[in-house]
Amino acid sequence: MAVIVAILGLVFAVGFLVLLKLHLPMGITMALTGGFAVGIVVLQYCLGPMIIDAIVKVRWTAADELGYGTGQWLATACGTFKIPQPRMGIIEEAAPNAFTYGHGAYDARVVVTRGLIDILEPEELRAVVAHELGHIRNRDFVVMTMVQALVLALWTLYYTSRSSGRSNWYIVIGAYLAYWASYYASLLLSRIREYMADYSSAQITGNPNHLSYALVKIAYGLAKTQTSGGATVPVSAPPKIAIGGIPPAPSSGPYAYDTSAEQKMRAQIEASRHDNAHAIAARAIPQPANAMGAQAVKPKPASKQAFSAAQLGAFGVMGVSSMRAAVAWSGADGLANPDTFTTAARWELFNPWGRIGEIFSTHPLTALRIKALQKLNRLFNQPDAFDFSKIKPGKYKGFGRDLVLVSMPWLGLFGGIAVAAMTTASQRTFDLSEVFMPLVGFSAGRLVVLLFSYMGEFRPNKIIRLLGEIEVSHVNPIPTAIEGTFTGRISPGIAWASDFIVQDDSGFMACMFRRPLGMMKLWFGLTSAERYVGKRVRVYGWYRRFNAPYIEIHHFEVLDTGEKVSSNYFPWAVVGNLLLTLACVAGIVLLHRFGGPI
């Protein structure tokens, strides 16, 4: 998708500038630019699947490779949804995920990764595939492409209206507000489509808990093993986590784990997960009245900001979860531990950054999706897999500090504007040096954000402990050192992917490898990242959470060779902002001395 975004973004930018420079009448210009925006998105829709086929390393295969009987199950499910059978593919990488893409139901592809196959139970894997079938049945490819075309058209109309004259300023403001309203409405619609696909999965499987377990394994929850290149990395049983937060010290052994208190509950859940393993072919899909807007029908048989180029292609691929949300953990038996899940879910439920991050995301928070699925349990006569009533309420105490911190660059910018305005008013003349004052304020504020959000000493930690932390955000991280294995890269099948998944003996998590320049990150992914997959490493970085948990890598060490690989992002970001601030200050001094008023 990065290639599609880059190429189409470049085409749009150049074409848009050409149209503006033609100096056509305003009515014609607005019509042409709006039509051009729609045309670009339609072009992405038409070419996107073919480009993904060319650049993503997918091995197309029969559905039965996902498990014995899956082929017949898929045929029956597609017959129930009245859609053609999609083409099935596997990406031989460890990141647990699944997605579907295409132009429509007639040529849809459903792709799963080897990591997803390895961590899910058969009924959970089918629930994920059923979720993707829901995207196909709901025509999400077409719906989201149309919405994205309208969003981009509104942006071009806003930008074009800026040259319509000062007397029409209210049109400019209205178009700008309409653009942003439509952009966030498109993200909201995408999240709604995810809920709809979740419901489709529950219809096919007859048990919403199957998708619940799959979601927490994919997003931040629970898996038994992770594989890379045919090698299986075992996940031993980690310490039991109290509902309140960090796991206590184990009573015996490195990771002793007592499940006696949960035995009855876990037995009930396990029974519910497997109760239809042999009878699923005869199960009917319930269609209760007024459920998700559906009317009761005869049951059918079921079987086993300013415009950014990054917005282009955002909805070409419909996935079960955000690609960056990649952590997993469970007990040695591979079952989901309800207490561990509810502990990890506390951050999403009680840290306000979770809800704020969701606004900017195409996927809902996992905890909210699980809650919605558990409401469906009433319709399908299934017990709840996770008990949310056990979750101890919490409050993130650092939210005010975070708000001040993320506001610093803008406070500096507006402060610089205010100083420049007061200077002009007092001197009754405008000096060129005052142009640099807002830049000084912004770069100085950005420097403060960098210094405060990269503080602290790296201390040894475990992934399962990090997941239980509520006092963490994207600007208030936990400096940490994790010893484990790079089991794969986050973006499945992409040759230039540079972000990793690290797994220790308690779980695995996304690791973001930032570089000072985008081209440096791309080059690292193309030339070096793959050779670190499967290596035992010690990762030093900052654990952060926004709409997904991740570790931003400062550097990592390969344990068997002693090789050290640094991202170099933080020092160069500090140096760059410092140089920018000093350059602006120097510009103010020089222009004030040699420039003079205007």
Overview of the molecule:
It is built from 17 helices and 14 strands. The protein has a domain at 1-205. Strands 1-2-4-3-7 form a five-stranded mixed beta sheet. Strands 9-10-11-13-12 form a five-stranded mixed barrel. Strands 5-6 form a two-stranded antiparallel sheet. Helix 2 (26-55) packs antiparallel against helix 6. The two termini are 49 Å apart. A hairpin with a 3-residue loop joins strand 12 and strand 13. The longest helix is centred in the first third of the chain and has 37 residues, at 169-205. The model is unreliable at 221-316 and 322-336 (pLDDT under 50). The protein is α+β, with helices and mostly antiparallel strands and 598 residues long.
Query: From the alpha-carbon coordinates, what is the Rg to the nearest angstrom?
Result: 26 Å
Report the average pLDDT across residues.
Answer: 75
From the N-terminal CA to the C-terminal CA, the straight-line distance is 49 Å
Number of strands: 14
Uncertain segments are 221-316, 322-336
Oligomer: single chain
Structural class call reads: alpha+beta
- Describe the main β-sheet briefly: 5 strands, mixed
Share of helical residues: 40-55%
